[in-house]
Amino acid sequence: MSEEPERRDAGGESTLTVLLAGGVNLAIAVMKAVAGVITGSGAMLSEAAHSVADTFTEILLLTALRRSGRPADVVHPFGYGKERYFWSLLAAVSIFASGATFALYEGFSTVFGEPVEQTSPIVGYVVLALAFVLESVSWTQAFRQVRRGAAEQNRTIWKFLRYIDDPAPKTVFLEDSAALIGLVLAFAGLFLHHVTGSAVYDGVASILIGVLLAVVAYVLGRTNLRLLIGRQADLPVLRGIREHLAGAPEIESVVDLQTMLLGTDQILVCARVDFDDALGAADVERACVRLTAELHDEFSDVTEVFIEPVPRSDPELRAAVLARYGEIAKRYGR
């Protein structure tokens, strides 16, 4: 079966996840804003800002999915896969800039500013309950995609999220999880304000929502930064590529192996290998062509392969490899 349909299916599921989350967040943002104005709740207004930030996030993620799928051209011979990471990084910045900042401002204003009288808290309770139901629908779709991906890679959900190379489902899953937690915090602030008459609880809830959004933004920003600057392939894939090359009859030693994620489901492989000295130039060429095809077949994410013949005894090359990998290089006999 070709790898292209699999990639299209994965991209289609990510698009569905993002579209569903975007529609839900837009509807919730309007409800929260109206309820925030009616009730005078700072936590409710913070949650409205939270949903607005999430809506902008989905727009940026849709942009990422669309632009990263463009084919390679003369200017970008390796394609546009990394654009997904750039727009996803902007989405993380959006969460912090528009969501966390407003929530923190609203929270501190409520705690240290003039007391605000609460009105019609029932409206707030109803809106929060509806928002929780709608967010649960979006969260369920994101969780299904994450759980399916983790099962396919035989990993736990948390380990899958740590090493995932598609930021869209991770972003939606984390922001929806934060949204559900934020709704609970907003409910607690609204309820305690209602019971005690003190707006401090409402302000504290806003501050906690702001901190929550800042943490999510940091995690997503760090993830996309690593992908954007060129993260290597996952260790199981890296080991598999090394073992495949080392097992080739024409190769005496894999001197150096470098990989980089070019985008979602796109891996660049650069291998420096020491071929059997008895081989002729034509034999080496045929071996390189065959090994490239075998790596494409065995590892569906491998899209580019470069194999360079080098002598393993070269001191400068060995020093460069040891400087990059240290003790790991010695362990593999580089």
Automatic annotation (TrEMBL):
Pfam families annotated for this entry?
A: Cation_efflux
Location in or out of the cell? Membrane
Q: Is tRNA processing set as a keyword in this record?
A: no
Query: Where does it mainly reside?
Result: membrane
InterPro entries, sorted: Cation_efflux, Cation_efflux_CTD_sf, Cation_efflux_TM, Cation_efflux_TMD_sf, SLC30A9
- Looking at the UniProt entry, the stretches that span the membrane are 85-105, 125-143, 172-193, 199-221
What keywords would UniProt list here? Membrane, Transmembrane, Transmembrane helix, Transport
Identify its membrane topology class: Multi-pass membrane protein
Q: Where is the Cation efflux protein transmembrane domain?
A: 19-229
Q: Which NCBIfam families match?
A: CDF (TIGR01297)
* Name of the protein: Cation diffusion facilitator family transporter
Name the source organism.
Answer: Amycolatopsis tucumanensis
Query: The organism's lineage?
Result: Bacteria, Bacillati, Actinomycetota, Actinomycetes, Pseudonocardiales
